[in-house]
Amino acid sequence: MSESIVERNILTIIEPAIKLDPLEILDVESGSDNSDGETMEIKPSLFGAMIPVIRVNGYDVQGDRLNFFSLKNNAFYPTCRIQFADVDGLFTARFYPKDGDLIQLNIRSQGDETTFKPIRIDFTVVDCKPVGGGGGTKANEYLVTGRMFIPKLFAESIEYEEDVTSFDALLNIAENMQLGFASNVEQTADQMTWTNPNDTTETWIQDIVANSYLNDETFFTSYIDPYYYLTMVDVNRLFSQEGAIEASQTFSQNAGDTMGAQGADGQEDNFPNYLSNLIQMQGGGRYISKYQMVNKSGEISKANGYKRYTQYWDLESKEWISEYVDPLTNDTPGMIPATKGRLIDGEVEGPRNNQVKYKYLGTQGDNVHSEYQYSTVLNYQNIVEINKIGMIIELDTVNPALVRYSRIYCQILEYASPIKNVLLAPSQDEIRGDEAPQTRSGATDENDPSSENGVVNEYLTGFYVIAGVEWLLTKPGPVRMRLTLQRREFTPTT
């Protein structure tokens, strides 16, 4: 089933109201009247051109001392890792963090801030240690890790959301925590009273999502994004391989201006929402500089089975319920599922039907929605299943239009002659090691393996779902992006 663009997009329901600690930046460069120990009049979001602005417990990590930076948004909340040199000894002597101290981060926006928001996050220090042990005669180098600071997220309490859907429960929780709320659904069909029996708010949120239900063709996950939005996503509607490539706003520029803002060399345009390793795109925000295929299917199939029965005693109907969840797929014409086991002559191999798991969930009464126990397995089984096959790609620059749980089209070209030989061969039978054909009959420069042009890898080319986003910097920079991509169907290789 093909979903419309509106149905796929994650839309804002409420804006975040959380208050962050002030992050003021000293003007030490302009030579103006305010450059002597005064803060700059321009907004901090417009700084950090080549590197992010980072402050650890009041200590400014200057760019020439920053050796490594990572901001990850691939779990429930963002985390960071920072490695820097304490050249002047100030961090060791005066700013070493204590319990509750913060890491403050700002990554400037691109273009007008109304188009792309700057990333401004406060992190709780999770770990801070000198690399190599420290304590020597040379300046220490520190590795600091942090998690997004959200008051009340880890507080245990007894709370409840009475007679509401999971959608409304999460909306209310987000509002109470001063988070924003966003989703690609307008409502769910699971009205009940959602209780928190002295768990943390994080656990409560994840428990609600684990038992969220709209229909048998949906499954849900949730996370907090780098802009402080609690986000609820129906993931299934993102996996379609059909439909046109959508357009999105971007900031055209080269990698050297990767965090450019007003006055930088570039402009905002509506551009097809795709990525490619086409050489001609090198330096821009749509260029794939590295890609790595990922296959965890054997590990996941062994642990999770190919389908799972949910089993429980229904107190209301007084009957034993045993029904299975077969993970969803799209069955796109001309494509094959990559998560359903090996196909032999068009039929699935034996383990697909035999490798089945069972989950006993106890009882279900009238105090929960009718699909409560079933939704536990429906959500879990499908979320695990989509981790089987995908890619990890890197971009040499930051593209703020690429957000988690959005659909992106990737075009992968092969430039190595041996791979091009195989892709250009009319059939597998014509490939015989060193005797592999160098050109196809009627070859042109575009499909000549000896040319510098790439050949499209049809198997890897297509729509993917962005499951994780990471901002990376290794000295001297600039900031780049690493994306975790997922996919359920592929074009056959033969």
Walkthrough of the structure:
It is a single chain. The protein has 494 residues and is mostly beta strands. The protein folds into 4 domains: 5-15 and 153-238, Phage tail protein beta-alpha-beta fold, CATH 3.55.50; 33-148, Thrombin, subunit H (Beta Barrel), CATH 2.40.10; 247-294 and 389-490, no CATH class; 297-385, no CATH class. It is 13% helix and 35% strand. Strands 2, 3, 4, 5, 6, 7, 8, 16, 17, 24, 25, 28 and 29 form a 13-stranded mixed β-sheet that branches. A 4-stranded mixed β-sheet has the order 1-10-13-12, with helices on one face.
Q: Can you summarize this structure?
A:
This protein is mainly beta. 13% of the residues lie in helices and 35% in strands. It is globular, with a radius of gyration of 25 Å.
Lay out the secondary structure:
Blueprint: H1 5-8, E1 11-14, E2 53-56, E3 59-60, E4 66-73, E5 79-85, H2 90-95, E6 102-107, E7 119-130, E8 141-148, E9 156-164, H3 166-176, E10 180-183, E11 192-200, H4 201-210, E12 220-224, E13 229-234, E14 247-251, E15 268-272, E16 274-276, E17 288-295, H5 297-304, E18 307-314, E19 319-325, E20 336-337, E21 343-344, E22 347-348, H6 350-354, E23 356-364, H7 372-385, E24 389-395, E25 407-411, E26 413-414, H8 417-424, E27 455-456, E28 462-474, E29 480-486, E30 489-490
Parallel strand pairs: 10-13, 16-25, 18-23
Antiparallel strand pairs: 1-10, 2-3, 2-6, 4-5, 4-28, 5-8, 6-7, 7-8, 9-11, 12-13, 14-15, 17-24, 18-19, 20-30, 21-22, 24-29, 25-28, 26-27, 28-29
